[in-house]
Amino acid sequence: MPEPRRTFGPIVLVGLAGATMAAVAGAQPWVAGSSGNVDTDNAPAAASLDLAGLRESPLAAALALVVLACWGVLLVTRGRIRRSVAVLAAVTALGLLVTAVLAFATLPDDLAEALRAASGLDTSEVSFTGWYAAALVGAVASVVATAAAVRFAPSWPEMGTRYDAPTGTGADAAPVAAEPEGNLDIWKALDEGYDPTEPERPLD
Question: Which of 127, 149, 136 is nearest to 98 (CA)?
């Protein structure tokens, strides 16, 4: 079994790549077809058809963007919040996969019906494009990566508390840096999150 901390990089990369692939593919045509002289690959002929929602899945693109946003939040949070975001990402990724699977059964029939209605014929040919395959692969990768995140995220590296906004005063207040006197002190102040020109004010 791999060490949990070592899973951080590979899982995040797979998750980001899968969600990005699904988001891009979700905005592209998933099916193409023809019936007589009506062909979706023929721009003038296709322009006369109302193909909105018949060739792509806007829902898949939206869900993929939610998964991407969850990865961004997951990287900057800790503890229970991090795991909660990972669970949300996993549920959304599962919804993305279900959307892609349902499209396999519905999009070809819907497009074929629209093509036959436009051509006046009772035959049509419909096939999936490479974008559908890309969306399906991205959805599967997202499900695997987010499920792994639910399992391993609590043990992943976290951002240091020095990047948190200061809270309260007294024992919980952020330490006040001394006035920097040289280049080394200036860099140290920046590293600790303080403005070297105003050491009592943390950087925004």
Answer: 136
DSSP symbol at 156:
S
The first and second tokens of residue 88, run together, are 């949300």
Report CA-CA distances (Å) from 101 to 62, 121, 126, 133.
16, 29, 17, 11
Q: Tell which phi-psi region holds residue 22, choosing left (phi > 0), alpha (psi between -120 and 50) or beta.
A: alpha
Closest CA to 180 of 162, 195, 201, 165: 195
Q: What are phi and psi of 42, to 5 degrees?
A: -100, 105
What is the per-residue pLDDT across 9-44, written as a single tens digit (0 to 9) for each? 889 999 999 999 999 999 898 988 888 777 777 655
Which of 126, 130, 131 is CA-nearest to residue 33?
126
Report the candidate in 114, 115, 109 with the shortest Cα–Cα distance to residue 37: 115
- Quote the CA–CA distance of 203 and 12 in Å, as a whole number: 28
- Helix, strand, coil: what percent of the chain each, to 5? 65, 10, 30
Token pair recorded at residue 79: 């503890």
pLDDT interval class at 109 (50, 70, 90): confident
